[in-house]
TrEMBL record:
Pfam families: Response_reg, Trans_reg_C. This is Stage 0 sporulation protein A homolog. The modification 4-aspartylphosphate is found at residue 52. Keywords: DNA-binding, Phosphoprotein, Transcription, Transcription regulation. Residues 3-116 form the Response regulatory domain. May play the central regulatory role in sporulation. It may be an element of the effector pathway responsible for the activation of sporulation genes in response to nutritional stress. Spo0A may act in concert with spo0H (a sigma factor) to control the expression of some genes that are critical to the sporulation process. InterPro entries: CheY-like_superfamily (IPR011006), OmpR/PhoB-type_DNA-bd (IPR001867), Sig_transdc_resp-reg_C-effctor (IPR016032), Sig_transdc_resp-reg_receiver (IPR001789), WalR-like (IPR039420), WH-like_DNA-bd_sf (IPR036388). Residues 127-224 form the OmpR/PhoB-type domain. The gene is graR_3. Residues 127-224 bind DNA. GO terms for molecular function: phosphorelay response regulator activity; transcription cis-regulatory region binding. One of its GO terms (biological process) is regulation of DNA-templated transcription. One of its GO terms (cellular component) is protein-DNA complex. It comes from Clostridium oryzae. SMART domains: REC, Trans_reg_C.
Amino acid sequence: MYKIMIVEDDNSLCKNMSERFEKWGFETCAVDNFENISAEFTQKKPNLVIMDVNLPYFDGFYWCNSIREISKVPIIFVSSRDTNMDIIMAMNTGADDYITKPFSMDILIAKVNALLRRTYSYSDETSELIECDGVILNLTDSSIFYKEQKLQLTKHEFKVLLVLMKDKGKVISRERIMRVLWDDDNFINDNTLTVNINRLRMKLKGIGLEDYIVTKKGLGYVIL
């Protein structure tokens, strides 16, 4: 389990971020002592830091630079300050990414997962996410998130959506999808595929994703 340290003096936002990250299987910790964030970092030993710029005592740039003196742990700034100079300052002090407020928690979670994969080079699918136009597919529990809504998928629905999201913008033939769905216990024919596509579309429509999967007649399916 990866631990995320949230350096945010807005208690409501900090709590909201913590709850959302914990839903995705992360451990979180918040900063209690803004006078010495480096000491808290050393004590709590997080795998990734999310930090605001505007903080009591010293700003986030100061603390990012301080953490960089002792660690290469990934750091993402989340701030209402959106000038080019702020972003340049963040990068120059050692940040890995910069997101401006207001922001999408779904996008932040996707960025966190991508950064953790690059940093710690884990190849399994634990807590791995695929993001596609605001739709996030969780490879761990076969669920998707869209606009604060979570949807559970069956094994076949998950496999269909996975292959389409991985090749977004490319038309995937029915034959290829049937090969993906086939396993030792189930023979997938043309009718079975149609049933699974229709069920998946109905589920997606229920969370506001109507026409998310587009049919290309005689060719297959695509997410545009």
